Amino acid sequence: MDNLDQIVEIVLSEIQKFNNGHETDEIPVGISNRHVHLSEEHLTRLFGRDAELCKIKDLSQPGQFACQDCVTLVGPKGTIENVRILGPTRPKTQIELLAADCFKLGVKAPLKESGKLSGTPGLVICGPKGCENLTEGAIVAKRHIHMTPADAKRFNCQDNEIVKVECGGERGGILDNVVVRVTEASKLDFHIDTEEANAMGITGSDKVKIVK
Description:
The chain has helices at residues 2-21, 40-47, 99-105, 149-155, 194-200, and strands at residues 26-32, 35-37, 55-58, 65-74, 79-87, 94-96, 111-112, 124-127, 130-133, 138-141, 144-147, 162-167, 173-182, 189-193, 207-211. By secondary structure, the chain is an alpha+beta fold. The strands form 3 sheets. A 6-stranded mixed barrel has the order 1-14-11-13-12-15. The protein is globular.
């Protein structure tokens, strides 16, 4: 048995060496529906003093999570209820919409990177304890890839670089204008919204490749 154990250990070691030397060029997919990131100030106004976000599951990016808490969005032409909050809180409240949501709400949310809220429209956002009339913060998120500096070196990419991504499957093709976002805290992930995913027949179990 000792010899068998040694053989198994050697085989596993060689497999690990092989995998480390042959890293895949595929990138996992993360698909996002409409959601909201709240500031601490707006969390208090919408949910009351001492309110805390109630996590229901972790998301792909380290430290990010989906919450049990939801809000209602009110625009000039309509409302959307049960919009999920994602945590943790941020310095500024941000509303990430689908393109079709803009027609229902009656706002012209621009295609923007997360956190770049200058020139964006606002909405009324309501929780169980109150409402807030935001003057800015509504965007349609640009598709993007999260990666670490080590990933960026492997894929020969730089932070804020614009790349193309190839998707397989019956409705597959090339998606252009994908922003690369490089941080130490990232986990490799290609992020698109549900509209883009449905159009390309992409699911959360699929993988994509960068093409230049």
